[in-house]
Design brief:
Elements (H helix, E strand, L loop, with lengths): L7 E4 L9 H6 L7 E6 L11 H10 L4 E6 L3 H10 L4 E5 L6 H11 L2 E6 L17 E5 L15 H14 L4 E5 L7 H7 L3 E4 L1 H4 L4 H14 L3
Parallel strand pairs: 1-8, 2-3, 3-4, 4-5, 5-6, 6-7, 7-8
Helix pairs in contact: 3-4, 5-6, 6-8
Bound molecules: D-xylitol-5-phosphate and zinc ion (ZN).
D-xylitol-5-phosphate binds next to strand 2, strand 8 and helix 7.
Length: about 220
């Protein structure tokens, strides 16, 4: 299956109605991926679901899965999400014992390998390892909850990643997650993001297809 071109819009089902997941997934068929937030109430102070639920989402979703693991000990748990067929699995740099070894395992299973950083986490140590990852997720809120305000102070870090990635010819997607909507997506695109997670801005819209199309158009008009 060919991968969707940038800019990619990945609605976060954290903002969906959890007891109507099948219908909610059907509503985002025009998106590029479905962003699936796994939280363990340990790495973040919130709890969502684990592999059993993700396996059902994988079986039901009209678009491929972009799994975001906000969990401790991803070295132990992340490969299971790749094994159930998720197209992309992203774990947190702050939580991983050996991020490069884990990314290699995820790729070996057949998934794209992503690494995420919280707003306060530095990315410079990743520059020489960009080729080990398929996606870098720059969190634009503190992970744990949907509906928070976008943190513009994360943009210089994203810009440095985009510039380094271009300079090194790395084939890595740059994703932003948190507070992304019609009013913030342009600045994230200008700073170098090509893959955009949006929860409330998509599921809170009266016309979901229109919201996805609008976000994609704005991002495309403000490419780095
Ligand atoms: C937050 C999650 C996000 C969240 C984004 O920890 O990782 O994916 O769902 O929600 P919005 O777009 O509402 O900020
Ligand atoms: Zn997320």
């Amino acid at each position: 299956m060919p991968l969707p071109d940038a800019p990619r819009i990945n609605p976060s089902i954290l903002a969906a109605d959890f007891v109507n997941m099948q219908a909610e997934l059907a509503r985002i068929a025009s998106a590029d991926f479905v962003h699936v937030d796994v939280m363990d109430n340990h790495f973040v102070p919130n709890l969502t679901f684990g592999p059993q639920m993700v396996e059902r989402i994988q079986a039901t979703s009209p678009v491929p899965l972009d799994v975001h693991l906000m969990i401790s000990d991803p070295d132990r748990w992340a490969p299971g999400y790749a094994e159930l067929g998720a197209a992309s699995v992203t774990f947190h740099l702050e939580a991983a014992a050996d991020a490069i070894a884990l990314a290699r395992r995820l790729r070996g299973i057949g998934s794209r390998a992503g690494v995420a950083v919280k707003p306060g986490t530095d990315v410079d140590g990743l520059f020489e390892h960009l080729h080990e990852f398929d996606q870098i997720l720059v969190m634009t809120v503190e992970p744990g909850f949907g509906g928070q305000g976008f943190m513009p102070e994360t943009m210089p870090k994203l810009r440095r990643l985009a510039d380094e990635s271009r300079r090194r010819g790395a084939d890595v997607w740059l994703q932003v997650d948190g507070g992304i909507g019609a009013d913030t997506i342009a600045q994230a695109a200008e700073a170098g993001a090509d893959t955009f997670v949006a929860g409330s801005a998509v599921f809170g819209a009266s016309d979901i297809d229109e919201a996805i199309r609008g976000l994609r158009q704005t991002a495309a008009a403000h490419r780095h």
